[in-house]
Amino acid sequence: MRLFLLILVTMIAFAANSVLTRMGLAEGRIGPAAFSAIRLASAALALSLLVISRGRKLPLATPGRWRGVLALAVYVLGFSFAYVWLSAGVGALILFGAVQITMFSAALRAGEQMPPQRLIGAAVAFAGLVWLMWPAGHATPDLAGSFLMAAAGIAWGAYSILGRGASEPEADTAANFLLATPFGLAALPLAVGAPLTPTGVGLALASGVVTSGLGYVLWYHVLPQLRASTAAIAQLGVPILATAGGVALLGEALSWRFVTATVLVLGGIALSLRRPRRLRD
């Protein structure tokens, strides 16, 4: 039960992060470059102070650290810039589709055993997302935005896989954010001429310190206890939570399409995570 609650809180943090980003970018309160830089820098500062206050050192020179840093930077920048061209729903679909492919591929390469019901459940849940997020009619997502969001999804899948080996979640996350911050600062010249309001800065700070910084620490606590495929499937609930947040906080309409998709996604996740019954002799 404790593990389930930690996963639930983490998924809520991820969904809240999407809502905060949508509130900042979609409403023209802040540009993607400034949002990314503030998000990375604020998370790095908050988590570094937390780690240092506990008398611990930041593991900046750990072998292989660059992989987590690069994955985090690509995810944050790709995620923010993709929403310049994509709607929130299509963006979420592309992001988590790429996450599923990345993490399931890693699980298969590692020889992870996957019962048929896990694969069927994952397919049902993803079908629910497609039903909810894909635009009506024949609209085609923007190619540049789709590429950036797919890159973000692959990077987040890689970041999650690396997190399964985290021994110190707080220190590892702090080090990743601190070393990824220069990538965000390097993108600041692209912020020239983009909107920058106090509300936008506040949303970026909340995204950095709370839903990214603390949320990712929780994720790194949880990941060592999960199989790669299970961690991938659990994240399929994030777009549903994000859409629900949009209904509650952004005044978006609640539709039967959303209700149907929610049943499919949650049912698929439940089927995937259910332990198969052993046959009796």
Task: Walk me through this protein's architecture.
- Helix 2 (32-53) crosses helix 8, helix 3 packs antiparallel against helix 6 (143-163) and helix 7 runs antiparallel to helix 8.
- With 281 residues, the chain is mostly helical.
- The two termini are 30 Å apart.
- Helices cover 73% and strands 0% of the residues.
- It has eleven helices and no strands.
- The chain has helices at 2-25, 32-53, 65-82, 88-109, 116-133, 143-163, 169-186, 198-222, 228-234, 238-249, 256-273.
- The chain crosses the membrane at residues 34-52, 64-84, 90-107, 119-137, 143-162, 174-194, 200-219, 231-250, 256-273.
- It is a multi-pass membrane protein.
What's the SSE blueprint?
Layout: H1 2-25, H2 32-53, H3 65-82, H4 88-109, H5 116-133, H6 143-163, H7 169-186, H8 198-222, H9 228-234, H10 238-249, H11 256-273
Membrane topology: Multi-pass membrane protein
Subcellular location: Membrane
Main location: membrane
- Please state the overall shape, judged from the principal axes of the Cα atoms: globular
Major sheet: none
Uncertain parts: none
- Share of helix among residues? over 70%
Query: In total, how many beta strands?
Result: 0
Q: Pairing-aware structural class of the strands and helices?
A: mainly alpha
How widely separated are the two ends? 30 Å
Radius of gyration: 18 Å
How many DSSP H or I helices?
Answer: 11
Overall mean pLDDT: 87
Order of helices and strands: HHHHHHHHHHH
β-strand percent reads under 5%
